[in-house]
Amino acid sequence: MTKDDGETVEEQKKKPCRFWIWALSSVLFRLILISFAGNLNLSSRPEVSTPLTSIRRLAEGYWLKQASMSPYAGSMYHGSPLLLSLLGLLTVQRIKGQPSHLFCSLVFVIADILSAILLRGIGHKLQMAYGLNARLLGLLKSPTDKEGILPSGDIAALVYLWNPFTIVCCVGLSTSPIENMAVILALNGAVTRRVPLAAFGLVMATHLSLYPAILTIPVIFLLGYGLDAPPLKLFLQTRNVESDNRSSTSSASKQAKSKPTAQLPFLWRTVVHFVFWVLVWSLCVLVLCGLSLSKHGGLEEMFKRTYGFILSIEDLSPNIGVFWYFFAEVFDFFRSFFLIVFHVNILFMLLPLAIRLKHRPCFLAFIYLAISSLLKSYPSVGDSALYLSLWALFVNELADMKFSFFLFCGYLGVSLLSPVMHNLWIWRGTGNANFYFGNAIGYACFQIVFVVESVSAMLNHDRALKKCNPNHQKVKN
Predict the structure, then answer these.
(1) Is 259 a domain residue?
(2) Structural domain of residue 44, as residue ranges?
(3) Is 423 exposed, middle or buried (0-12, 13-18, 19+ CB in 10 A)?
(4) Would you give the distance in Å from CA 43 to the centre of its chain?
(5) Which residues lie across from 54 on neighbouring strands?
(6) What pTM does this model have?
(7) Is position 410 within any domain?
(8) What is the rounded distance in angstroms from the CA atom of residue 220 to the CA atom of residue 363?
(9) What is the Cα–Cα distance from 453 to 275, expressed in whole angstroms?
């Protein structure tokens, strides 16, 4: 072993240690902020808490249930009855000298840690696949050649833990950390081919907030095709060139040349297994919800007050989205029409993106989550925290992404201006709703630019691989 090899081994040992130091530091930072949560008053911020994620509404629903009433009777709570059973008891637990809802805060801290660990596992799998594909395409010389490949798993986990959006959701007692953990659990299960885990995460994420149902397509692609990889044409070109180089004059090579190009096999058995487990977990969730609400309207009441509430946009309290202002101004006669138009917008984007990015299912999941956070009824910064962390999984592919600094400044500016505009409108009375809505419009514009530039950068990366691939040059010549 040379001196350089020894230094490399020592650096590899230090990297996990550094990661855990930063991870534990983020946990300590959260605990410090939780001790001052009463003074920060983040739980009342419309950017953090929505009608679906507010812990105050959850506490109200639990109080109604304890009084032998329906948790949805007061038109305050619109979340999952299972989440109400899990967190409701913690909202009434108190410790003298400690902030209220301390136990809920600790649950959210644990959820953030688990999400970061799951993200790190996803990143390591994608990093290994990235290196393997690069070697198959002839872009890396040897299996030990990892120069220029960034540790995407560690980066994504730390981005999630240190993202200000994630921290304020945790300290502000939003249930977003639990919803994000369910989404990441589904992706982790699909990446690691743990079908029951992927199905459980997808069912729970859909049950908690409905919109993650669109992740069914990326999860099926992950289970059917495998991890993200460059387009199949590159590998087919490489295979053809290798067969020509081995024996250009042999009869075997002529037969291989005459055979039609093989297509990437799709694992239908794994997908059927996944559908089976989705049905099993869905049945379990429905049975538990039915038992929880057996005396208060049953499943019909739950669907009406949760999914019906999300789709009908009954609550028009301000948030960082654009729906509340639009539906406050639109005539009631056109309300149903625009509800259909706004919600169908998400569905219209699913199929074209799935066709174009089916070879990158994890990246497709990131795009779907970014689009849903832009077009959902009651968005919060917790949604942005999730898709920004998933974006970090592709730091190797998106290294040349344009307007990165512009987008960073945009997100930072919107985050700082949002509480200012809300204060001028609500508390000082020197502004109006247009101040806050203008900030929401700016936030939506930055999200659109972010999604478009991410997709463009990924497609440009795939095109660049064709130019850098030596086998492609041979085929071209």
Answers:
(1) no
(2) 3-242+264-476
(3) middle
(4) 22
(5) 174
(6) 0.88
(7) yes
(8) 13
(9) 33
